[in-house]
Amino acid sequence: MAGFRQTLPSAIVALFALTQCSAADSPPDSNQPRPRIQLMTSLPLVWGDNASMESILSGGAEPAPVYRYWQDQYDMVAVDSLENLEQDDPDIVILAQPRAMDPADLTILDAWVRMGGDVIILTDPDLVWPSELPLGDTRRPLASGLLSPLLGHWGLELVADADRSTDAVDIRSGSYSFATRGVGKFQPMTTIPASNVRCKMGAADFIARCSVGLGQASIVADADFLNADYWPESTRHSPQNSGAGRFIDSLVEEHIDSIVSKK
């Protein structure tokens, strides 16, 4: 929240307009403020699959295409804990199939969003992300989302596809389309959600947009679409042209718009 909320409104509006430019437009002006984003993920985005300490230190580890793009587009920091969330106060938190989170982290996140924070959550009930790492290796991506306590608190349940199919499917959300696997959906829980939470489903219940107190949450029932192996080959070196990259950009823009509207 801090970066945009402490910046002149004219600069905020300029950045928001800039992020809406097409991929053919010039790259973002480095003098403009970029959204400050904290990323928590179990996916091999930051260092790539099978990265070792040696490969990281030697510079041989290769980040995923989407993460390289995010670093160019946003002021992004990968974190393992949200214990300093209130002090750091980023503009947006992205949880992309995070590892099992400490209950304290979930409590911190819920409180931060209720106070006006913005979060984008990608939680996959059936992740189909190939990995060379052996089963049981803690570096492997989490096979199924473990955010049920938080989602349930907000009145949502993440549900896997009935036939548990891992076939490739094409997803369309608004004007964006992309390929993925193991897609889930959200359904409202029969119990009453916590106070001041209102969620609306969209795109065949693939995405939920929730108002949580003073903050906003966009929750997507998939994370496989971040895997560049599922993208057209022509976009693997230009994620800004991929449907997956543009979809995430659109979610970030929605949250920037929400931040601006609170000014």
General description of the model:
It is a single chain. This protein is α/β, with parallel strands linked by helices and about 260 residues long. Helices cover about 25% and strands about 20% of the residues. It has 8 helices and 11 strands. It has helices at about 1-5, 10-20, 55-60, 65-75, 85-90, 105-115, 150-155, 245-260; strands spanning about 35-40, 75-80, 90-95, 120, 155-160, 170-175, 175-180, 185-190, 195-200, 205-210, 215-220. The strands form 3 sheets. A 7-stranded mixed beta sheet has the order 2-1-3-4-11-10-9, with helices on both faces. Helix 2 runs antiparallel to helix 8. The protein starts with a helix and ends with a helix. The model is unreliable at about 5-30 (pLDDT under 50).
Main sheet: strands, sense, barrel:
7 strands, mixed
Using the alpha-carbon principal axes, give the shape. globular
Overall pLDDT score: 84
Query: Strands of the largest sheet, in order across it?
Result: 2-1-3-4-11-10-9
List keywords for this structure.
single chain, 263 residues, alpha/beta, seven-stranded mixed sheet, two-stranded antiparallel sheet, 11 strands
Please give a quick description of this structure.
The protein has about 260 residues and is α/β, with parallel strands linked by helices. It is built from eight helices and eleven strands.
